[in-house]
Amino acid sequence: MLGRMLETVTQSRTTWSWAIAPAVGVSLSAFLLFGLQLAGYGHALLVVSLVGAWLLGRELAKDLLLIGVGIAIVSLTSVEADLEWDRFFTVGLVLTLAVGVPFAVDRFVYRRRAIRFPWRTGRKWPRLEKGYLVAVPFLGWLILPFYFITSGAYQNWPHVTDLSLLLRFFVGVNGVGAWDELFFICTCFVLLRRHFGVWQANVLQAIIFVSFLWELGYQEWGPLITAPFALLQGYIFTRTGSLTYVLIVHLLFDAIVFLAIVHAHNPGVIPIFLI
Predict the structure, then answer these.
(1) Residue pair 214/222 in contact by the 8 Å Cβ criterion
(2) Radius of gyration of the chain (CA)
(3) Where are the alpha helices (DSSP H) in 194-242?
(4) Do the beta carbons of residue 196 and residue 72 sit within 8 Å?
(5) What is the value of pTM for the model shown?
(6) Closest CA to 23 of 44, 59, 58, 52
(7) Predicted local confidence at residue 2, as pLDDT
(8) 267 CB contacts (<8 Å, ≥6 apart)?
């Protein structure tokens, strides 16, 4: 069975010049849906891309369908930052389904384990990787306040005025950050890697990743930050194979995101930033 799986993946990668077209279409559908808010065009492109994938190969179509299902589920509601209780739970439910449905189909319909969440790899982190865990919050501290304040992007998040909203905001930022790794890396990137090389798969998942973050609020020149971050997360996951590591990286970065946005809305409350 393992031999047949490897043969299938190898064969699909040799025809990447054809298979890349529907994969690009699926990624660009996310750009239309999340980045440009063009629901009709985005859903049409998604359907056409999946039909094209089916014509090229069954395995390609099955994997792109899982990604497409996740994208379609997320598109059911706005993911713009909103801390009201009804939106808080609605977005949480939608994001949970966007990860859970593809995982369930992969496991119980396709009867395989292509989508996995490798918490423990048994591999020790070398000094460079440990050092990166220190560098990430430092770079966030250096860059994020400047980005949020000078671009005005912090206004895409509500002004937190009480403890309840502050806690909700903290949970929301970290919850979405964790979801990013479960969907964009462990689902989209992993499924794309079954058919394409690292850089192709990484660019494709980054398009979806950055498009989602744009709708979430990382606008203006935000993609200059989110695109490198998305590509780095895919690259790091390729090197480490560890969800735990990329998740820690993301949550460290998001801790600074949380503090920087609160600081931007309430100057002087968190006097640790340069701007």
Answers:
(1) yes
(2) 19
(3) 198-216, 223-240
(4) no
(5) 0.91
(6) 52
(7) 34
(8) none
